[in-house]
Amino acid sequence: MDRIVFAYAGGVDASVAIPWLKERYRADVVTVTVDLGQGRELEAVRDRALALGAVRAHVLDWRDEFVRGCVLPSLKADALYDDRSPMAASLGRPLVARALAEIAGIEQATAVAHGGGRRGRKGALDVLLKTLRPKLRTLAPVREWDLSADDVVTSARRYGLSAPSATLCRSEANLWGRTIECPMLDDSWQEPPEDVFTLTRPARECPDEPAYIELAYERGVPASINSVAMPLPDVIASLGTIAAAHGVGRVDVVEHRLGGATLRELSEAPAAVLLHAGHRDLRKVAAVVAGAVLRKGDMIYSGQWFSPLRAALDGFVEATQARITGVVRLKLFKGAYSIVGRTVAEAVTAARGPTIIPVTKAR
Fold this sequence. Notes:
Layout: E1 3-7, H1 12-25, E2 28-35, H2 42-51, E3 56-61, H3 63-76, H4 88-107, E4 111-113, H5 124-132, E5 137-139, H6 141-144, H7 149-158, E6 170-174, E7 177-181, E8 211-218, E9 221-225, E10 228-229, H8 232-245, E11 250-256, E12 262-268, H9 270-285, H10 293-302, H11 308-319, E13 326-333, E14 336-344
Parallel strand pairs: 1-2, 1-4, 2-3, 4-5
Antiparallel strand pairs: 6-7, 7-12, 8-9, 8-13, 9-10, 11-12, 13-14
Helix pairs in contact: 1-7, 3-4, 4-5, 8-9
């Protein structure tokens, strides 16, 4: 094996995997880091990859593609895992798989690798890669190596990396949200400690007065917040800031993963939770059929993004969006939200005036 292309996000496990892949397979390692709006300094991630022995480190800015090609179709389809989770990590994986496949072709690599596959199970990324490049060998260091969490910490420190969190929680973030996996929370009866959440405030620290937000949708696409029109990435960022300050956006689900494994996953997705809630409410008011909802969510989760059926479902969903035009009014208070008003119209614009409604006080 001459060259391996590795999906590298900069975490402790992934950092240890670079020299491990080099030593185990005696191959050059080329890293690929895909910017999906995770908010990290990715040039620093690139430099770390090179310092750890990668012969080349690609950083791809695919934030717009993520929003247009992954987030928006999912939102229009009301696709949620377990009817609650916006699946931020799952939505990012098709683009990670595509990046690995494309860079592998450019680099003439015979294998690709990724940091998923804990608990000895194959996951959605393996399925996506198999669909895109069936003959390309896929490696998953975390699934292959015989290293305990303490071994990972020791290895990381040997390579000059700080690794205080290797035995605690792993997280994956992008513009749509942040997912968290913690071995200490495998018991689904145990309440998550506050320190695993980094985006959303605990209820006790939230404002003592509710916030009211008006979300306008045009043909299923979020178009404005409180009458201020903005592009969808800005809607997500602005709404996420407001909702997180009021503690809204935490999701706790037990996943039934490919191969039969079950795993508890926490997530923080402040903007995604509210945008899905608003879209679903308008869909129901407009009496738009939702037959594709469950099927689309299952396909995203299980790695069938590149299937012909997914494309067909997108076409069906798009045809239903014309009627999902209107405004939803939400109330946020101490970690909870409720929809307190809505109106459906033929067209919605941000022409009701330039005044921004205060979002920290009830009207």
